[in-house]
Write a structure and sequence with these properties.
Elements lengths: L3 E5 L2 H8 L4 E3 L4 H13 L2 E7 L7 H8 L5 E5 L3 H19 L8 H4 L3
Parallel strand pairs: 1-2, 1-3, 3-4
C-alpha cells in the first residue's frame, strides 16, 4: 500500500519536516539523489517533495517516475533566492539614493568579525 511521504532537499530546509513525521532525505550530490529516488520507488512511497534545485539535472529520472502511478514527485522551492533578489534590489536603491550600501549590509556576509 502506498502511504508514505518524503521530502528530498537541502538539509537546512527539510529538517523541520522530520518533526511532522515525514521521512527526510538530504543528498550531498546528484548521484546520491538518484539513489534516494530509486529507494523511494522500491519502498512504495506514495509522494515525495523534491527541491527545485534537483529538477533540471534529474529531468529524465522525474519523467520516468511520472509515467508510473507512484510515487508522485512534487517540486518545492524556498524563500532564499527571492530574499537574495530583494536584498540586491534594496542595495542598488540605497547606493543610488545615498551613495552607500551601509544600511542594507548583511553582517555575516559583508563584514569580517
Amino acid at each position: 500500500m502506498f502511504d508514505k511521504v518524503a521530502v528530498v532537499g537541502v538539509s537546512d530546509l527539510v529538517f523541520a519536516f522530520r518533526a511532522l513525521g515525514i521521512k527526510v532525505f538530504s543528498p550531498k550530490n546528484l548521484e546520491e539523489t538518484k539513489d534516494i529516488m530509486k529507494t523511494l520507488e522500491e519502498e512504495d512511497f506514495a509522494l515525495y517533495f523534491l527541491h527545485e534545485s534537483f529538477f533540471e539535472p534529474l529531468r529524465e529520472e522525474i519523467e520516468v517516475s511520472r509515467e508510473k502511478f507512484c510515487p508522485v514527485v512534487v517540486g518545492f522551492s524556498d524563500y532564499r533566492e527571492v530574499q537574495d533578489r530583494i536584498g540586491e534590489m534594496l542595495r542598488d536603491m540605497a547606493i543610488k539614493a545615498t551613495g552607500s550600501d551601509a544600511w542594507v549590509k548583511k553582517r555575516e556576509k559583508d563584514e569580517a568579525r
